Amino acid sequence: MRSEISVVVIDDHPLFRRGVVETITAEPDMRVVGEAATTDDAVATTQTTRPDVVLLDLGIPGDGLEAARLISDHLPSTRIVILTASEAQHHVDRALEIGAKAYVIKGVSADELVKVIRGVAGGEAYVTPSLAAAVLMERRVAPLGRSRSDPVGDLTPREHEVLELVAEALSNKEIGARLSITEKTVKHHVTNILDKLQARNRVEAALRAQSEITRGRNG
After folding, report:
1. Residues contacting 144, CB < 8 A, separation 6+
2. Long-range Cβ pairs for the range 191-197 (8 Å, 24+)
């Protein structure tokens, strides 16, 4: 049985931070081990508590992206979730480059935030769907200028199913249970998906899936 997910909440708005803390502490499998409101405090608090997950607002005094970089450098096993009001594409791109595992826009429901935290703690990735298409547009040209016109079309039906569940931030174990296949088989499919999509990680694969799902619903 998995131990509690330890979380540090970093936001300079006390009322908002309090609401997030209350949301997390209401979950039996989560606990808040620290809070911070500035870049310096964020780095110091995470180094002291060494949490599983950090929720980080980019707008904190100092530099939220720099805080994310320092946390990622010093504590590579800690999963960073950007929880911010900024929808600026350069913020999304930079956060993912630094190593953030999720980028969530404030206004997300409590249930969805809890789901994201659990998914990220389990090794999954998530980006607010409304930002996914723009991120993917910048990923369509592979190194050496090789076209990536429609790599999703190269996936098998089973790989499509797995990719859609990756986009829902499900773990390999959860995907296996949903599809009645072994976790080892899921890992094999995920490896093939990353290769076919030329995705560097599950974040990019999940974004591609979110984009395709949205296109299908609208098309």
Report:
1. none
2. 192/159, 193/155, 193/159, 193/162, 193/163, 193/166, 196/151, 196/154, 196/155, 196/159, 197/148, 197/151, 197/152, 197/155
Write down the pLDDT at residue 90.
86
Indicate the residue type of 97. E
How far apart, in whole angstroms, are the C-alpha atoms of residue 118 and residue 106?
17
Give the Cβ contact number of residue 191 at 10 Å. Answer: 10
Could you count the other beta carbons within 10 Å of the beta carbon of residue 4? Answer: 13
User: How much is the pTM?
Assistant: 0.68
Residue 219: CB atoms within 10 A of its CB come to 5
Instruction: Give the integer Cα–Cα distance in Å for 31 and 22.
Output: 10
Output the CA torsion sign for 107, 110, 112, 115: positive
CA dist., res. 3 & res. 55, Å (int): 19
30-36, strands of its sheet edge to edge: 30-36, 5-10, 53-56, 79-84, 102-105, 126-127
Average pLDDT taken over every residue of the chain = 84
